Amino acid sequence: xxxxxxxxxxxxxxxxxxxxxxxxxxxxxxxxxxxxxxxxxxxxxxxxxxxxxxxxxxxxxxxxxxxxxxxxxxxxxxxxxxxxxxxxxxxxxxxxxxxxxxxxxxxxxxxxxxxxxxxxxxxxxxxxxxxxxxxxxxxxxxxxxxxxxxxxxxxxxxxxxxxxxxxxxxxxxxxxxxxxxxxxxxxxxxxxxxxxxxxxxxxxxxxxxxxxxxxxxxxxxxxxxxxxxxxxxxxxxxxxxxxxxxxxxxxxxxxxxxxxxxxxxxxxxxxxxxxxxxxxxxxxxxxxxxxxxxxxxxxxxxxxxxxxxxxxxxxxxxxxxxxxxxxxxxxxxxxxxxxxxxxxxxxxxxxxxxxxxxxxxxxxxxxxxxxxxxxxxxxxxxxxxxxxxxxxxxxxxxxxxxxxxxxxxxxxxxxxxxxxxxxxxxxxxxxxxxxxxxxxxxxxxxxxxxxxxxxxxxxxxxxxxxxxxxxxxxxxxxxxxxxxxxxxxxxxxxxxxxxxxxxxxxxxxxxxxxxxxxxxxxxxxxxxxxxxxxxxxxxxxxxxxxxxx
Length: 549
Description:
- The protein has one domain.
- Helices cover 66% and strands 6% of the residues.
- It contains 20 helices and 8 strands.
- The strands form 2 sheets. Strands 2-1-6-3-7-8 form a 6-stranded mixed beta sheet. A two-stranded antiparallel ribbon has the order 4-5.
């Protein structure tokens, strides 16, 4: 009798989920069920709502009814809250933060040229080795560099404030906030409408962590969203965004690393001069950058390697759940969605496994086939280096005409292009090369600490010598050629060198993957062309759903 009641209960839940999932129009009751929460509330307090799956009554009040959800956040509660926060922040806030850094840098640049902001000290001058009189230069300050830092965070804050007060902004589904966690009736109603939440979501944002595809409810969310996309004739690859949570901390430490090195670069050159110390400067910079970034890039590279293997060997039967009743429920739903006759459980599970191993694997390869998309690395580089470049250019523009080889307009234009080579070419290439080294050297889990430290050292040294060599060649070739053939030839040569370094960094990824396969460090996998990603996160409804059902 008990077994019959449970079977009947599961069938009722299956029917309820399928009925709400296939609803084309919202009735009055469903209009109150479908809810979303603004991005700024998800990110508030360092994404503090991700700290625990346990919710309180007031959490539900943070969301509001909506007809359409922009992002369905799908994640595992076991993953680090801070990793999720940084990954979400980089996706939702990085463009605005970069724009803020550039605008603040340009403002400080103009105020410096108009003498509103005086040089910080008259003892230091920027020395340009292509000048008529070597060793002479103009006064330098750090106003633009400091303004870039302020602008970076101000841009993100302004976007958050505008979402809070001026516009709704993007709306997200986070189970803890959009399904009532204390009212039993509302909770059951929300859980049975999980298919409706997915159907009403434009994008599924997967915050992947190593346990993601081992959680049964995470698998269910992917299956339900993919089924809805097929029924709506939508290309699922355009509506699922996939991000490993390790990429957020990696990009954050890259920002801090490039920031510290750009500041060191400016101070070093002001004190010691130009090309004669360029290689030593580049070597010191690269070693410091390597020591800062190595642990984080190795963590990201290892996670990236794991996700491909996890998808390639995915099995529904090996996914974990809190209760056997959950497995029975989800199996019944998969049978409805993936079995031709809607009755063959074995065929439906095999079909779902094949979908994950092929279609999902192909989607993930497209989105993180390039471990560090150029768009992300260049935004980080511009956010940092725009201030440093503005400070150096301001110093150049305050020089008297007698020191310049070319006419003033041509000199300043070419020098500005030379400075742009670093955030647009050099630094993105450095970050990508570092990722290449990490993919090659990233160990599997369980490696002893000494072995891991040795790998970090290898990463730092390799990046230091190759990166500093290109830095030195770019700088010396510009200043040397500017004295001889002219500044136009110099800047063209610098651009070519920068493009070559960037091409080596990005095209070299294929060679790294081939070498990894040869060394047996990873299962063979087909490389696909890189597609920039703008990722997000996902909310595993594991604990709340299991309790509700």
